[in-house]
């Protein structure tokens, strides 16, 4: 949280500090200092807010197009979703109230004229919540995988597949939708290994108890599980090329605009600060871009107001407006 300056400070110092706040709070998250030379291993393709990335000990809201590096942690809030695209083309989906860590992911490529496919190595740790990893047919041909999906006690080793899993308070679930995976579990000091290679096979490890027999999930249950991680139409979807934006303001006071901006980011909404100059002087607005369309923007605005209210800041709905850029 930022702390605003006391009125007893010199005016020049106050102006300097507010200017610094503007630079920090309105800087795009993917352009934060110190990240320019980092290795990109994933990009955010779609979001259902609120969601955050934790990097270098600091949480900031996710936004479409944001580049992610290894060893970063993602968090999702109530009724949220995240869709990532890994550097090999695989898709990673994360459900609500979830936490995921990208650990040491790296895409190794050979010479441009070499016939050997690239190799994706590393691990994805599902700390809590629902998750899905999907490799499409083109990505399977272009890239090999030595990737572990880790839960609390269970690790699924994959080489190219479609996998759904969940780290719940009372159990860990791994469901193979397509392909083949190895599943290892540390239980009572022993390592237990299994192989899933039949479509829709699933494995459940209850907390503190032996795993259940491997079974076949019914189509209706699989559809329910899959829906836990899919972006939901009408819930305020943002995507990389969304042309609609939500605006808050205008404010004549920079200090007031910064207060709302700070709380919006804390609640997981990636607004940036914009200034407009007219005959009356300078006004300030908050802008959230990348929304799919006006219907999604309306749904997002309603959710945003409710989230701010839960955080202790009540915002007049008349301050919200929706704009769509021409293509």
UniProtKB/TrEMBL annotation:
Keywords: Signal
Position of the signal peptide: 1-31
InterPro entries on file: FecR (IPR006860)
Presence of the UniProt keyword Hydrolase in the record: no
Domain annotation FecR protein: ranges: 73-181
Domain of life: Bacteria
UniProt KW RNA-binding keyword: no
Name under which the protein is recorded: FecR protein domain-containing protein
